[in-house]
Design goal:
Elements lengths: L2 H11 L3 H4 L21 H20 L8 H6 L11 H18 L1 H18 L3 H4 L5 H12 L12 H8 L16
Amino acid sequence: MTEKIIVRKVKEALSGIAIGYFDTAKSYSFDEYYKYFNVDDKETRKYAILLFTSMLGNWYSKSAFAFKPQKERLKYDDGINTDYFNFESYLSSLLDCYQYIEKDFPYMFEYIVTYLILIEKDKSLSYEEWFPEINSDIFKELREKILNPNSNLAQGGHPIKYLFREVGIEPFFLTDFFEESFF
């Protein structure tokens, strides 16, 4: 898939995010966006990572579930071929690129970390227990390198307007604009 197609697909999938934030369920085309977390083109990287951020935001708000453990996929299989994204691949790519993501997109990184911490806390179950099919070393590394050193972010970070400005999303609500935008 070309990088222009990735950007277009993500923009389509996230249309309306300025109104519904991450509380509105999104339909994502089933692609391997994690493969674009470290491409040279910054715009493509930004949109691939933004889609991952949105997946986590939807998961946390319980409006959509892009990632499900194997046991839950089998439990709720109603004969419809529902695709779920490979959580292990997304986490592996995050671990490979997190320093660049944090540098290039600090507010998006903040939201990723916050959601990963709060999703696990909300479930009251460790990721290792929840996703036993995933090598537990990934979760250990995730905690050591990203979650524990940034655990303060889950106490409350920047308003979403900072993320919108960082990724170029036009705000909808007045509270999501920065004051300089009014002049």
